[in-house]
Amino acid sequence: MAKAITNRSENYSQWYLDIVKRAGLADHSKVKGCMVIKPTGFAVWENMRDQLDRMFKETGHVNAYFPLFIPKSFLSREAEHVEGFAKECAVVTHHRLMNAPDGSGVVVDPEAKLEEELIIRPTSETIIWDTYKDWINSYRDLPLLINQWANVVRWEMRTRMFLRTAEFLWQEGHTAHATRQEAVEETLRMQQVYADFAENYMAMPVIKGIKTANERFAGADETYTIEALMQDGKALQAGTSHFLGQNFAKAFNVKFLSEENQEEYVWATSWGVSTRLLGGLIMTHSDDDGLVLPPKLAPTQVVIVPIPKPAPEIAEVADKIMAALKDKGITVKYDRDEKKRPGFKFAEHELKGIPVRLGIGKRDLEKKQVEVARRDTKEKNFVPIEGIAAYVEQLLEDIQNNLFNRAKQFREDHITKVDTFDEFKAVLKEKKEEHPESWGGGFISAHWDGTTETEIKIKELTKATIRCIPLDNEAEEGQCVLTGKPSTQRVLFAKAY
Amino acid sequence: MAKAITNRSENYSQWYLDIVKRAGLADHSKVKGCMVIKPTGFAVWENMRDQLDRMFKETGHVNAYFPLFIPKSFLSREAEHVEGFAKECAVVTHHRLMNAPDGSGVVVDPEAKLEEELIIRPTSETIIWDTYKDWINSYRDLPLLINQWANVVRWEMRTRMFLRTAEFLWQEGHTAHATRQEAVEETLRMQQVYADFAENYMAMPVIKGIKTANERFAGADETYTIEALMQDGKALQAGTSHFLGQNFAKAFNVKFLSEENQEEYVWATSWGVSTRLLGGLIMTHSDDDGLVLPPKLAPTQVVIVPIPKPAPEIAEVADKIMAALKDKGITVKYDRDEKKRPGFKFAEHELKGIPVRLGIGKRDLEKKQVEVARRDTKEKNFVPIEGIAAYVEQLLEDIQNNLFNRAKQFREDHITKVDTFDEFKAVLKEKKEEHPESWGGGFISAHWDGTTETEIKIKELTKATIRCIPLDNEAEEGQCVLTGKPSTQRVLFAKAY
Fold first, then answer.
1. Superfamily of B12-93+123-285 according to CATH
2. What is the per-residue pLDDT across A79-113, written as a single tens digit (0 to 9) for each?
3. Which of the residues A34, A47, A66, A126 would you substitute to probe the B interface, choosing the one with the greatest number of B C-beta atoms within 10 Å?
4. In terms of CB atoms within 10 Å, which end of chain B has fewer, N or C?
5. Whole-angstrom Cα distance, residue A206 to residue A196?
6. Per DSSP, what are the bridge partners of residue A465?
7. β-bridge partners, B154
C-alpha cells in the first residue's frame, strides 16, 4: 500500500487533512464551508456526545430543543451580542421557490419575501431568553438548567475541517439562576465538567483559565475556557463557559419574584463544546501513520486479524476471544476480508486508529498465544490466549493513560516563561525539525499590563493572542513584556486555531 | 386544582393543545410555525430516538451527518422532487448583517448576497446523493446503509404542535444498493422496523401499506407507509419508507462497476420518522385527565407520593422500594414536595402521564402495604411492600400491553367496509357523543378504480384520502364506490392529519 498520509514534518496541514479524509472521519461537501461527517467520524462524535450528555445529566441538567431560526430583531436586542455575530450570519429572506417565468429553471419567488428576516442560529441565547421570559416568574422556577444538542451556523470565510466550519454540531447549555453567586458557580462547574471530559475521555490535557475582556464571548461578563496544545505548538480553545450576568435577562426583560418578594433580573450562564473537539482529538494524539484514538472514545477498540487469512480454526479462537472481550464491554471486530494481505490490513487499522490489534496465525494457535500490537507506541508482543481478555482490558487502560501522559508531557515541555519581548518573539520564531514550516511556539507565559490595547498590539506584532489567565495562577510581580508597565501575574499567550 | 385540560368531547383540538402545554411537552415559539420542545417532551423523544437508533444499528446502519444547506441547483436536479418541495422552502440569500446607514438598526448587508441561494434541507436526498457520487465506484462500496438524525424545515402555512411544524426533528435513512431487489427489500425492512417500533414501544397499532401514486414521496417509485388511527377517528401517517428506484442516481449521475464489470446506476431507498410521532403518541393514549404514556417510553415510570406529606419513616421505605425498582431498570421518582397536598400531586402526575403511582401513608406502613394506582385504567389497589418491585415490573408490562390492545380494539372498531358512495359519505358524517364536532369517521375500506382522477375527486367531495393499500390485502372483486368501475381490492380511506 502506498503511504496513505503526508508526514507531519513535510506539511502539517496536509497531514491533518489526510487523516480526516483517509481515516473516514469527514469529507468536504459542495456547500461552501460545510463538511460531511462520515460514519467513522460520527461514531466518535456519538461517543463524545453520550459521555458529555451523561455528565450534564449527572450535574442536574435536562435537554430541550429551541428553534433553528432567530428573528433578526431578537439578535439585535443585546448590543454586544449582535456586534459579535452580525458579520457571519446566514439570513433567510424567502420561503418559496417558483419556476422562472422564462422557463430557465427554479428561482426564488419574490412574492414570498419574509416580513422579518430570520437568522440561522449562530448560538441560541436570544431565542432561549425570549422563551425563558414565559417560563420564569418566581424563584420557585429557578434554577433552570437546560442543555440543547444542535447545529449552528457561523459564516466563516476560512474554514478547516472540524476546527472551523460554517455549520457545526455542538451542545449549548443555557441556565438561569436567582443569584449572581449561583450563576458563577454554575459557570465554573461546567468548565470543570469540560476539563474532566477532555482529560479523562479525550486524554487531552487542558489548562483552565479565564479569558481577557478582548477574547470574551459577545454578551458575557466573563468567559471561562479550557485551552489545549496541539502537536504543532498551536493552542486550541476546546470549550468555553460564560457568565452572562444579567445582560440577556435585561435585553429580554426576564425578571422573577424573589423569596423576599422583590422583582429582580435573572442571572445567566451559557456553555458549549462542538465538533471542533474532534479536530483537537486528532491533532493531540495522531502520528505519521494515521489516526490515534483514546480507547474510551474509539468506536472499535480491538481488531482481530487472522494471519495470513481467515480460517475456521482461527475463527473459532477469535470467536471465544471476542465473546470474552464483549463481556467486559470492549468493542471488537474480526477482519474477515479474504482478499487483503495482513500487512495491508495492519496499515489500514493503524490509519483508522484502532487502539489494539490482535494477530492470530496457525503457529500462534499451536503456541496458544496471539500477537498484541498497541497503536500508541507500536509495540508488539506475544501474549497467552488464556487470560487475554483481562490483558487487553488492562492494556486499553494503559493506552488511555499513556496518551494522556504523553500529551501532558508535551504540553509541559512547551510552556516557556519569557520576561522580555525579544525572548517572546524568539520563542515564536523557533524552528522544530518535526515542524519546519508550521511550528507555533507553544504556550508563552509572560507578564502583561492588563490593557486591551497592549493585547491587540502584541497580536499585531506576533499573531499570538492571550489564550487565558490560568485559574491556578500564582501572584507574581513583574513587568509587561511589551510596555514594561507593572503586572501582578503571568498570562498564557499562543498562536491559536 | 382547577381542571387542567379541556375535555375531548368539548374541543378535541384544544384538548390536544392543553396536554402538549400542560404536561410540559412543548411550547409555541415566537418564530412562526416553530415550536420549543420542552424538557419532558424532549425526554420522551430521546427515548424514542434511542430505541430507533438501536434498531437501525441492529439492521446494519450507521449514522453520519450531511449539511443543513442544499444549493438551489441540487434541489432542481430531480424534477418531481423539486416540484414537491419548492413551495415550502426556507431560502438563505445573504451571509451578513450590518448597521443600517441611517442608524435605524441592523439590516441585511446587500453586498453579502450569495451567488447561489441555499435551501434549508426539507429532506436530504439531493445533498446526500451528490456526496454518494464520490463514495461509490464499485459493487464493493455497496450497500451503503446510512442514517442521519437532523432538523429539517418545510414552510407549512397551517401548523400544529408536533404534527406539522415548520422545523421538525427526524431521522432520514439513505441507502444505496447494487440491485433493484436489494433496495426493495431494504424499503420493506425499514417499514417493518417502523411498525415494530410503533407497536412494541409506542403501543400504537399501525397498518402497513403502500401509497397510491398521488400520495407518493416526490421522487419515489413507491412509498410504503405505516398508518395509525387517532382517537378522533382521523388517520396519522406515522412513518414512510421510499423505494427511489434509480431516480436520484440518474439525477446525480451515481454509477458503479458491477461484479460483471458493467457500469450501472445505483438503486436507492430513503425512510424517515419525525417528532410527529410524539403527536401520535399523545393522541393514541391520552384521556381527559392528561397525558398517558406507554411505560417503555415514559421518562419517569413510577412516582412515589408520601401521604399526606414527606416523613422520615416513609422516606426510609420509599428508599428501599426505589432501590429495588432501579435494580430492575425501572425509573422512579420520590415526590418530596412539602407544600402540595396529595390530591394536587395525584392530578399533576396523572396530567404528566406517569404510568404507575405508589402512595404511602403511615397506616400503610403499619399494614406493610402501599397503594398502587395505574394511569391507564385509573384502578387502585393495595399491594404488600414485600415483593413490590416484581409486582410493579409486571404491572408496567401489563400497562404497556393494555394500551396497545385498547388502541388496537379501537382501531378494529373503526374500520368500516362500505360498498356505495352514500355509505361512504354516511360514515364520514356520523357523529360521536365523545367527539360532537370533530369525529373523523375512522378508516373506510372501499373499492376504488385505481385512477388518480377518482382519488382526487373523492378527496374534493369528502376530504378523505387514500391512506394506503394494505400490504396484507386480500384480492376481492368489486366496484369503485365513486365510478362503479371494476376493482380487484379494497383500499383504506380516511380523513388524515
1. Bira Bifunctional Protein; Domain 2 (3.30.930.10)
2. 888 899 999 999 999 999 999 888 888 999 999 99
3. A66
4. N
5. 9
6. A494
7. none
